[in-house]
Each structure stands twice: as C-alpha cells, then as structure tokens.
User: What shape does this take?
Amino acid sequence: MASSTRVTGAHSFLLQLSQARERSDALFEIVRPEALYERPIPERHRIIFYLGHLEAFDWNLFGRELGELKSSTPGLDKLFAFGIDPVSGNLPDDQPGDWPERKEVFQYNRGVRAALDEQLAAGLEGPDERRRTLSQFLNVAIEHRLMHVETLAYMLHRLPINLKRARKNAAPPRAPQVRPQMAEIPAGVATLGLKRDDGVFGWDNEFEENSVFVPAFRIDTYKVTNLQYLRFIAEGGYREKSFWSDLDWEWLQSSGTLHPAFWIRRGNQFFFRTMFDEVPLPGDWPVYVSHAEASAYARWARKELPSEANGTGRPIAPTMAPNVPIHGATTCRTRASAILILTIGIRLRPLPFRQAAAPLASPISLVMAGNGRAASLPHSMDSSRFRSTRATRLISSMNGTTS
Assistant: This one.
C-alpha cells in the first residue's frame, strides 16, 4: 500500500508540473514570433527572457539534487537565471540582438524538460528522504511557474493587440447590474498563516500560524466597478494630491497617468482594452488598477482597503508590504506596473467626529466613529445623489446616452 501511495503522489506532482507548463505555453503562444523581443513594460525584461527563464529556473533548482544531469548549455542556464526584474533597479538598456535566437531558446526548453522529466520520474520513486526533497522542489517549481503565469498575463495584456495572435472568443457575458451595498462583519479572531508541523507547502513568509483579533467592520459586497472608479476620476481624483501618498503622487506626476492602464479615452468616452480587443468601458466590470490607484480611490471614498486579517489569506512579510498582492490580486514590484487584478471591495474606516475634509459627495451614510458618536461619511457610490455635472456627462457618454 505504501508503495502504491508513493507512486500516486509522484504522478500527482508530475501532472501538476505538466499542467502548469501547459498554462505558461498557452500564454507564449499568444505572442507573434516577431514580438518575442518586445518589452511591453519598460521596467521588465523582454518577453524572450521569460520564455527561457521558466525552464532555466527548474534546471538550476533541480540540478544539484539530480546530480546525474550535466548541462550542455551552461551559458543559457545563467543568462535566464535572474528573476522578474533587471537586477540593477534601473531601466534596462539591452537590445534584441543581445538575446539568443528564438529557435535556440525553444530547443533549450525542450532539452531541459526532457532531461528533468526522465530523472524526476525515477527520483520520486526512490528513497523517502530524496522523494521528500524532490517533492518540495516540485512544489517550488510549480508555484514559481504559476506566479509567472499571473505576471505574464498582465505583461502580455500590455503588449499591443497587433503583436498578438488574436483569438476568437465568444462575447463576454453581460454583467448584471451591481447595486453597491455593505455587509456587517462581527468582531472575531482571524487565523493567518500555516503551521510548519502540518507538512503543507508554503513560502517562508507564510509561516508561522498566528491569530489576530479583528474589530467589527463593514465591507463592500461587490468589487469596485469601472463606473464607481470613473466618478473618482471625474471628481478630480488624479489631480488631488491629498488622496495619494507622497511616493504614489511622485509616480503619478512623473508618469503622467490620468486613468487606469487599460482605459483609453477618446473625447468624452472611455474604452477598455482587453487582451485581444477594445470595447466600450463596461461600467459593471470590476476595475483593474494599480495598488497606488486603489489606495487613492479608498481615501477619496473615505474608506480603506481591507487588511490581511479582514479577509482570508496568508501572512505578509513586513518588508514586502508595499508591493504584495491583496486578497488574491497580483502586483508587480515596480510602482508603474503594480496592478491589482479586480480590485477588492473596501471597508469603512472609523473616523473621529471632527470633519476631516470637505465633503466630496453627498454625505448620506452614517457609521459609529471611534468615540461612539455618529460620523457622516460620503456615499460615493450612489449615482442618484452624485452632484458633479462633469462626472454625470462622462458617465452618460460611457453608457452611450446624452445628459
């Protein structure tokens, strides 16, 4: 029975690795061959780097444990070894000619996979200690590849549409109308992290398990929509410094950003760039913004982004806090391209009774402030009470109507 369980576990790991490879391969197939040397995001490597990096990472990871393997291309093992960002921290200045031909990279990838698969299948049926080590390494390889699938999806979203192989997909389903509301969450204890003794795979910053008391709060039941975010823009959200941290404001001014990365403005109308198309901005779709933009929106709405303990998740290392994903949303390390995929709902922040700032919208929601007295908060999501003529004009244009 033990032997049968061992083989089944080995096949499970190899199957997961195979499935992860299929997902990364599918993303690279989107890119036209001539576009593999493009750099969709200035702070990132060229696409060709990531094509080789995933296999080089696996090779370098398993190379020591699978001592029987000898590299035939040590130069490529090293070239593709270094992670998601150029290591200097400055904008990269390499040229397409500095990288190998794509045929050479594809050949390298095929060779790495064939060599690893043969040795891994045998190693996972070997002694228990070696099997445990290889299982841990496989978990790392699978998680690493899937993290790159997330960041590659965003990076390729930034690649111009004409440099991708268009896929004819069915029209997206029409989103039901979102009626913003908030849910009351009672006080309680949130358990975060993992126990090392449980034998579950996790990254270093996911250990050790700990409990945090969370006071009662209210949270949006739906993700923030494009329509809600449009009101923030129309009310001057990108021009008001008080909504942004100093670092975020510096980025905003230096980049000239006026709206989310995938919004396109033509006259008074916004469009949204999907992976393969441009469509009129769908008002009820969740907005897709950077962490800096999400934080500014929350301040404008007199709310907060949820903390780790307000939802379910894993602990965040303090050194990672400015750039980490929030509740499953993915971010990249540079501020200019730190993107939250489908911005989360935000919770009300208790305010002192004094008025913190001039009202930005009709103050119609009441919450209990920290001193036990009622504090008036603007309800920025109620279009019937929204007073800005300019915002109404933009919203009407987006919906194809006239104000």
Observations:
- The longest strand covers residues 188-192.
- The chain has two domains: 2-87+98-163, 182-398.
- The CA atoms of residues 247 and 292 lie 9 Å apart.
- The longest helix spans residues 128-158.
